[in-house]
Each structure stands twice: as structure tokens, then as C-alpha cells.
Amino acid sequence: MNSAWLDIVVRALLGSTLVMAQAIMLNWLRVPFAAITLFAGIAAYATVAGVTPVIVILFVVTVGFLVLVRPLPRDRYLLLSLASLALARSIAGSLRGYGGELGMATSTTWIAAQVPKSAMPYAIALFLSAFLVLLLLRHSEMGLAVDVARAAGTEMHAASMSPTGILTAIMLALVAVLASLTGAVQGAYPLRLPSQIAQGFVLRAFHFEIHASNPFIGNRSTRCYRCASSCIGCGELPFQCLTVCDIIVPGA
Amino acid sequence: MRGAYYLPIALGFALVARHGRYLPLWLPECGMVSSYTAYFLLERADMPALLAVVVALIFGSACALVLHFALFAGHIARNEPFAALLRSIGVIVLLDNVAGLLTGGYSLAFTRFPLPSNHGPIVLGGGILLTVILWAWVNHTREGLGYRSVSANRELAIQYGLQVSRIDFLVVFGGGLLCSLGGLANGIRYGLTAGMMSTTGLKAVAVVVAAGQENLLTVAIGVLLVGILESLCQGSIRFSAFEPGISYGVLAVGLAGRYLLSPWWVRRNMRKRWRADNPVPEVAG
Q: Do A78 and B249 touch (CB under 8 A)?
């Protein structure tokens, strides 16, 4: 297969993993959280720069968002999560030690930069992991508890039947791990971590939010197959195809 | 002076946000509609400048009214701020793409509308005057009382016979006019791009959310301060890249302050008062 198409597949798999992680928070728990790419971005920078204590930062960010779930109204929470992406972009751009606005050249030993075959196993593993989580949510008792927790937002009786806070914490932690691992691969795969990566994160998060929200608004969200297929079909694949078209046919 | 260009947008946003009890992220986009209309009337249709500006402002405000009544009035009536916010994001993406399609993605600039040399003080003075007039209207007039009543409890205001639909019309038209004015000022000063109001509008939105939409004077001061901070950042080589993040930092700190620290302060003060009212009796011996 042409390496350009393999590149599309790798990027689509990684992007879809992030969208599925987003769907876990938004569709299953109804937490309007759009900062999934923040974890990916921090992990990508950490991978390229080789900074291990970034785990502490990721932990603090996760705890921060968890603490704010309850006190903030949903629209404010969504706005805050979007603002955190823009803030991260500004901070990353102003850190001269990490390339500033120019970004950083990628050099890792575990993935050869811009070689799709070396990144493919990681991309497939992450995609399947996210898909497995969605399947478990669909078929396990914990998934049932999450369904009840989701209903607790509108049903008084449901609130007493499910530990909403603990479930939110577990899900957010799971999502943070998934997104961080995806970000690590996303950071190691390209030749250069793009200078405007955080800005791209913000725009993509808007798209993720809208794609992930569509089934949420119509309350048709609990089928993981549909969700996963819509993640690939609606969200990521056309975007990647267009990107590659731009590369193959200049000016297309 | 940069904050002065954000000021009308922030005021218009605060006015409509308080009225509908949601975040009308779409409203600043009326400024983009107004700017592009003014550009096409001035540069392509060769219309006189004053007439083109007036038509553009009216068109921007009319656009606000149409969008409000077609897409958001139902959300306000049903008290759905989150759904309205998501729909606002969709409207922003749609309008930005339409503007991009109209111009082939290129930036535009007004060539027949040169800025006067003292534009900064004029915009600042105008912004401060607007703030004072709006504050006085909201807090010290009969119409302002009606506006505050509808904002506080829409159903009760309807039951008491207030003309809610008239207030809706006036507030959205006023908010749209302010945003159109801000968008036009920004367009003339910084040029036109498809996403010109998404970033500029979000800066104003950040301050309004952090300061609270009911505090018009605080919003005005906050917006001017953000403008000053941005100018300072841009003047420094080390911090210039952080300039777009200032308003988002204000938003994050403001939200944390309003929803996390504020209850903490309330709790602490209540505890103090309770201790003062119920002193612990000293045990003798």
C-alpha cells in the first residue's frame, strides 16, 4: 500500500481514538468536556522533549477538571475546557526551551518519524483499546452503572442509585490515560511537532465536540459501533484525506 | 487602546447573556457580518462611506435578530443554556466558513476608509461613553427595570404583564448593534478575515464570563485591562507568544474564583459569624 494511504490510516486511527475518548465523557457521562486534546498535547510535547515529570502535570490537570465538574454549570465547564486548550497553546508557544512557536524536531527510538509502518501497531492497539472500553461500557455492569449515572442528571431517583462522583473520576482517569498515550504516539510520529499544534488542537476540539455532541443531543449515543464508525466516518477520515490531498496535489 | 476595540462587543455580549441567561457566543459574529457588508458596499458597490456604515450596522443588527428568533429564542424559553452554547459553536463555524467562501479565504482591508490619526482616543472615549450610557439605562431607567426583571425571572415577568417580546427585540437589537459596531471598528483597524470575530469575540466573552454579565462596569474595566496586558505582552519579546492566552487565563481564573473560591469565602465568613454568635464557654478550673 502507498505510504500516503498508510499515513492516512495511522492519523485516522489516532484521531478516532481521541474522539472515542471524548465520547466516553460526553456521550456516556454527559460531562461537557472538550479538553481531551489537552492531555494528548501535553503528552506529545513530553514525548518529544523527553520530560518524565509531565505525569504530575497530567495528574494535576485531571484532578483540576474533576474538581470543577460539580460546581461549574455545564456551559461554563465546556467553555473552560475550550479555554484551557487556547491557554495551553499560548503557554507552549511562549516556552522557548521547547521550541516556542517554531515547535520541535521529533527524535524518538520507539517510532521512526513519519514511517507509518512503525507507528501502525501503536495506533491499532490504542484504537482497539478505546473500542474495547466502549464495548465494556455497553455490556458490563459498570456500563450499566454509568448509564444510571448519566440519567442522574435528570432523574432524582437515579442519583441515589449510582456513585456519580466515583464513576466520573474513573472515567476521566481512563480517558486521560488513553488520550495521553495517543498524544505520545502523535508526538513521536511526525518529523516535527507542528508549531501551531495547540491551535490545531483547539480547532479539532471544536470539531470533536460537534461530532461527539450530535448523537448526544439526539440521545442516540449508547451504541458503541455507531459511535466508533461515526468517529471514523464523520470526524477524522475525510479531514485526513483532505490533508493528504493537499500534500499529493499541491493547490487541490 | 486595544481593549477599547473589544469594549462594544463585551457590552453587547453581556447585555444579551444576562437577558437570555446563556452564553451567546454567536453574537460577536454579527460584527463580522457587519464588517463584510460594509466592505462590499464601500469597496465593491462604491457607496458613500457614511451610508455604507449605517447600512452595515443595521444589517448586522438584523442578522442578530434573525439568528436569535430563528435559533436561540426556543432555547431561552426552555432554559437550555448548554444546547444553546453548542448551537452557537455551530453558527460560528458556519458563518466563518461562509465568509471564507465569499473571499476565497483571503484577508481584506478597507482602502477607502482611512483611519483618522487620533482613532485610539476616539474609540476609547466612545467606548467609555457607551459603557456609562448602558449602565445608566440598565440600572436607572424604567426600561432597564423591565430588562432586569425579565433577566431575573422570565415567567414571573410574563405573569406580571411585562412586554417581554418587546424587551427581547430591543435587547437583541441593541446587543447586535454593539457587536456590529465593535466588529466594524475591529475590521477597519485590523482588517477582515473569516475568523476575525471568533478570536476577538472570545476575548470579550472570557472577560464577561469571568466578571459576571450583570456587572457592566467591571466588564468594561476588565476588557480595558486585558487590552493593556495584551499590549504589554506584545511589546515584550519574551512574552509576546503568550498574548492570545491572557484572556483565556482571565477566564480560567475568573471561573475558578466565582465557582470555587467564592463559596469557600462564603463558608468561611458564615463559620466566623457562627463562632461570634456562639462563643465556646470556658471550662472553669
A: no
Kindly report, residue by residue over B104-148, the tens digit of the pLDDT.
878 888 887 777 777 778 888 888 999 999 999 999 999 899 999
Are A46 and A184 a contacting pair, CB within 8 Å?
A: yes
Q: Do A75 and B259 touch (CB under 8 A)?
A: no
**Other CB atoms closer than 10 Å to residue B159's CB: what's the count?**
9
The pLDDT value recorded for residue B279 is 61
Q: What is the pLDDT at residue B190?
A: 85
Q: Is the separation of the CB atoms in B201 and B223 below 8 Å?
A: no
Phi and psi torsions of A145, nearest 5°: -60, -40
Find all residues with CB under 8 Å of B273, minimum gap 6, and list them. Answer: none
Contact call for A87 and B202, based on CB within 8 A: no
pLDDT at B26 over 80: yes
- Collapsing DSSP to helix, strand or coil, A105 comes out as strand
Kindly list the domain boundaries of chain B, sorted by start residue. Answer: 2-277
In this predicted complex, what is the ipTM?
Answer: 0.78
Least confident of B5-14, B86-95, B102-111, B274-283: B274-283
Q: What's the CATH architecture for B2-277?
A: Orthogonal Bundle (1.10)
* Alpha helix positions (H), A25-115: 36-49, 54-69, 74-94
A74, exposed or middle or buried, with CB in 10 Å at 0-12, 13-18, 19+?
middle
Query: For the stretch A121-130, what's the b/e string if a residue is b when 16 or more beta carbons lie within 10 angstroms of its beta carbon?
Result: ebbeebbebb
For residue A198, name the pLDDT band (cuts at 50, 70, 90).
very low
Q: What is the rounded (10 degree) CA torsion for B174, B216, B261, B231?
A: 100
Residue A166 near residue A53 (C-beta atoms within 8 A): no
Position B36 scores a pLDDT of: 92
**If pLDDT is split at 50, 70 and 90, which confidence band does B203 have?**
confident
Identify from A30, A33, A81, A87 which residue to disrupt to test chain B contact, counting B C-beta atoms within 10 A and taking the largest count: A87
Q: Say whether A74 and B82 touch across the interface (CB within 8 A).
A: yes
Alpha-carbon span B21 to A158, nearest angstrom: 27
Q: d(Cα A248, Cα A241) in Å, to the nearest integer?
A: 10
